[in-house]
Amino acid sequence: MPRSLDVELPRLRLVDRLAGRWERPVTVVVAGAGFGKTTVLAQAVRAHLLEPRGVDVWVDCAPVHESAEALAGALLDALPGPRGRGARAVIDALVRMAPLDVCLVLDDVHEIPSGSPGAALLAELVRGLPATAHLVLCGRELPDLPLARREAAGEVLRVGADELSFTETEVRALGRGLGRDPALAAAVRGWPALVRLAFEAGPSAPWRYAQEEILARLPDGQRDALAALAALHTATDDEVAAVTGEPVVLAELARRVPLVGVLEDGRYRAHELWAEALSVETRRLHRRAAEVLTARGDLARAGALARRGGDWGLLAELAVVLVNTTLSALPVVTARRWLERVPDIARDEPAFLLLHAAVLHASDFADPRIDPLLDRAWQGLKHTAVLGQAVITAHSRADLPRLAELARRAGELRGAPTAIALVLRHSVAATLAEVGGDPEAALAEIERAPVVDVPRPVALATVRFHYHCLNMCGRAGEAADLADEALADADEQHLRLNGPIARWFDGDPADLAVLRGAPLDGTARDSFVSAAFQAVIAACCGDSGDWCPLPCGDPAGHDNPRDAVLACAARAAVLVGGGQEALARRTFADHLARWPVTDRFHERHLRRFLALGYVLSDVLRAVWDRTDLGPSHAKARAAARALVLARAGDVGPAARLPFEHALCFLPLPWSVELAARLAEVGDLGLGGWLADVLGPVVHRSLRSAPPRGGAARLLAAVPPPPVTRTRVDVLGAMRVTRDGAPVDPPELRRVRVRQLLAALVVRPVLTREQACGLLWPDLDPADAARNLRVTLTHLRRLLDPDRARGDASFHLRTTGDAIRLVRSKWLEVDLWRLDALNAEVRAARAEGDLDRATELLAEAVELWRGDPLSDLLDLPAAEPGLEADRLRALHGRNLLDLGELCLVSGEPSRACYLAERVLAGDPFAPRAHRLLLAAALKSRDPARVTAARTTVVAALSQLGTPPDGATALLLRQALLPAAGREQRGAVVSSR
């Protein structure tokens, strides 16, 4: 935001007009250059400090903000709170400032062109603006934005050139301030910038010569400095000196020249009118100005300089830099604008061929024109940008011959090895090694790539290949860690699933709930690869019936072994999952007949689905039995080998196999078969565990398994799901319902039964010793153990009333020394649901889905019926009391989170009610004070405002402490008369 000028005309009528931005969602200030838009906005923001109504946040737009990522980054940098990406993250940041109002002031919004990703982000922001947020859009023109509905509803305040023009009174006032005759500016009709120029030019100069008169007084050095500053838009002394080649003191320039000001961050800015007046100087200096702009990442403005100067050589250089620094994330609007201005005589320059190919790739990576364009660009440039774009395009198409050809070109790169060049050289060498069937060598290359020193799009492509190589080497656990670190916050869901998928293929089903039924998204290539992995996971979970027979198409329809492996594994997994193992064997046999296992590249890709191949193919089993495998692949081989040996009568390896590995590596019919063979020798562990994790599908699979004693024994020992759904509520007095109907059996009236059940709700697995110590701390161990057995009998009757005598309990399991309350869809617990809801709220807010977050919080708040875990609070142990305190604090946060979301959604009455609920339990909660005050102010109900103010002041008086800053701001608003509240306003937080 600009600082005040030495002589600045206070424009109180416009400051008062712009105070109305706090009453409207959107304010639009649009006029041509020189109408003082920025100056007036800055005055309005400063005036606000006197009687604040919220927080002003100022962001200067620039050409780079045509990128949605760059614009979101600038907005999020200006707003407090955690960083995110995209419009949803910006909206969430605005929501997090509630209950305070916030006004987002975007100056120079004309720098964001219509149709650009940045304009799309602004449109989403306009549509999703919270009720506590306000948006000011200031510029020479606006991008196309969805304002019609808001305008029809009276929600848009507009200020245009007519209002921004100086009145005669203002011209006279400015003339007095500058010691000039107002008649000098009579001819400019109130145009603010030209009025000031006319005054500064002196009494001898008509206004139309004002610029020339002012410039004629400047020495050549300052004239060049002004031209450089105008070309750079904003700059420091050092940046301008880098352009002019001489030392510069911009403070002196600002004193001598009107329409040059200093921003709050100490940078200087020249009005764009000076760029027009100094066009000759600007063209002379534009190359060095472009170097400075490029160094600070403002390629869009550097390109504009080249275009205005007709310097197609410079634009070609910038085109190479643009592609090189934005691989796979090209700012398409900028690139197209550059190409449109290139004359026919220069269109065949290698740099513009490269830019054309990058634009085509952004629209359709399969466009057949891309490779010929890149090949011609390569002949002329031999640059990393060409090679990088070619590699990304070939990867997108899974074009292995093309990748091999590009790998050979890496040695032809010209120039010193930059970070990007090094990354690409290592990436291409890694690609060649991976295609040659040596992912270990590929991994060694990719780990040498300096990804921390390159732009994010380049780094992201490299990280994804690093992840792929780790998986190919059987190091899926490390791949999961890499994905969690680098991809967990990605916008695309298929990238966020990389960590969970790698964990699954490392034998860890911790993300089962996330993976089951996850949608396929991303590019066609991404969806194809994801389909293969998710089809295999679905077969392991018994969900194959939800998949088509050919999830990745006919294996015979693919012309490369990598994609044929994916299609073969997906097809075989679905077949095994459907009980058609013989057809699955034939699928693998047909595949191996076409693609020999002696091909190293092919064999390494087969290892990605090692358990399937090991069981279904004698050829692959023989190969892998004599191969040293990576840790994840070795786990898969152990699971598959356990099944093969169990079929041969040796269940020893199966008994030592971790349950999780049986689930993750074997389709469900195989893991159930393994469980049945173990049950034949009395080991029921795997079958019971699978039933607990996967539910009824295990029982269905047992019933369809080959008739042998193990399956029957498991069906008898592993309880089937109950016929009714049971719900236990502990957020208040304990309550039990079945299929939604309350029940009051005699077991529920026993205190110890309720206490044991509540303890298992808090900690679903207890040892017998822990249970005895909690419930009967004063009894000797034998008496306590006897009491526990009796209590467990009553608890089983309470939870499984329909259980036949002698049958195992479904909800309550006792194995050895452990007592376990089993989580399943047939047992609901309000406390468990509360914790799950809060996890879902965090995920919804992370995705920017505020409507979903509001629904979830409302459900969480409704769960609360009173003091939680009341049956445990009389026990001497400390843990129940600590858990109850956690739940009370969580409920309070949920009430306030919901209240703030209601406030930003335009529901002040509901927000006020939720704040009052919090204050009923904690009358001194400052966050609840702020919500109560803000909701009352938004309601525009004087009686409610007075009541809220009285409540807060009384609490603060009782504490004897002053309010915090935000509460004080709201209290000041609550003390204003209603009319004053409608006109006054805000705290400044500038960029």
Structural class: alpha/beta
- Looking across the biggest beta sheet, what order are the strands in? 5-1-4-3-2-16
Mean pLDDT over all positions: 86
Quaternary form: single chain
CA(first)-CA(last) distance = 7 Å
Individual helix count = 53
Note the overall shape. flat
Report the sheet with the most strands, covering strand number, pairing sense and barrel closure.
6 strands, parallel
Helix fraction, binned, reads: 55-70%
Radius of gyration equals 35 Å
The low-pLDDT segments are 203-208, 978-991
The total strand number stands at 16
Strand percentage: 5-15%
In short:
60% of the residues lie in helices and 7% in strands.
Describe the secondary-structure layout.
Elements (H helix, E strand, L loop, with lengths): L11 H7 L7 E5 L6 H12 L5 E7 L7 H11 L7 H11 L4 E7 L9 H11 L5 E7 L8 H5 L3 E4 L1 H4 L3 H11 L13 H10 L8 H7 L3 H13 L1 E2 L1 H8 L5 H7 L3 E3 L5 E3 L1 H6 L1 H17 L3 H11 L2 H14 L6 H10 L8 H14 L6 H12 L2 H14 L2 H10 L9 H17 L3 H8 L9 H17 L3 H11 L6 H4 L1 H7 L7 H4 L8 H18 L19 H17 L3 H14 L5 H7 L3 H7 L1 H8 L5 H17 L4 H5 L2 H7 L2 H13 L4 H10 L1 H9 L4 H9 L8 E4 L5 E4 L2 E3 L7 H12 L2 E3 H8 L5 H19 L12 E4 L2 E4 L5 E3 H17 L3 H13 L16 H26 L3 H14 L4 H14 L2 H18 L5 H11 L2 H4 L5 E4 L1
Parallel strand pairs: 1-4, 1-5, 2-3, 2-16, 3-4, 9-15
Antiparallel strand pairs: 6-8, 7-8, 9-10, 10-11, 12-14, 13-14
Helix pairs in contact: 1-2, 3-4, 3-5, 4-5, 8-9, 9-10, 11-12, 11-15, 12-15, 15-16, 16-17, 17-19, 17-21, 18-19, 19-20, 19-21, 20-21, 21-22, 21-23, 22-23, 23-24, 23-25, 24-25, 25-26, 26-28, 30-31, 31-32, 31-33, 34-35, 34-36, 36-38, 36-39, 39-40, 39-42, 40-41, 43-45, 44-45, 46-47, 47-48, 48-49, ...
